[in-house]
Amino acid sequence: MLDIGVSKLLLIGGIALVVIGPERLPRVARMAGTMLGRAQRYVSDVKAEVNRSMELDELNRVKREFETAARDVGDSVNQGLNQATQDVNDAVGSLEPPSPSASTDDDTFRWEDPPPVYQRPNKHWRVKRGAMPRWYKQRQGVRQHVQSGAARVARHRPRRSPG
Fold first, then answer.
1. Per-position DSSP letters for 91-158, written without gaps between them
2. What pLDDT score does 154 carry?
3. Where are the domains of the chain?
4. CA 115 – CA 148 distance, rounded (Å)
5. Distance from C-alpha of 15 to C-alpha of 25, rounded to nearest angstrom
6. Distance between CA 67 and CA 93 in Å, rounded?
7. pTM of the predicted protein model
8. How many CB atoms lie within 10 A of CB 29?
9. Which of the pair, 17 or 69, is modelled with greater confidence?
10. What is the C-alpha to C-alpha distance for residues 85 and 83, in angstroms, rounded to an integer?
């Protein structure tokens, strides 16, 4: 680029002092510094934008590669699943259903029986299984209801005898 050393800067400064004059030189130098700063910011913004666009292109390329890889894996899984489904269907299709004249023993396979249906247990079945009986709680003195401090004090305060 430009090879500007200290000696060349001093030469430019001396010529500027003679041409511009000592009164206007500080304003011109300040304006030149401002313009140089703006130019550097503009160049750095352009560089950053170019870097961002390059990174964005790289990310888009990686995204496309990832999508194609995922699509290939999905296709291979679907092909394997379809092949397995076809094999199972072929195997099931080759079996003959039992004839109606066959004996109806309990140990023979029946095609008509539906699979058992899942029945959800009753609500809070874990709590009910682990719960203590009420008579045990009463015998052991386990508190069953929440009481305030004042209610507990009043409950255990000795009663006054009439008189």
1. HHHHSPPPPTTS---TTS--SSPPPPPP-PPPTTHHHHHHPPPHHHHHHHT---S---HHHHHHHHSP
2. 87
3. 7-82
4. 54
5. 11
6. 38
7. 0.37
8. 13
9. 69
10. 5
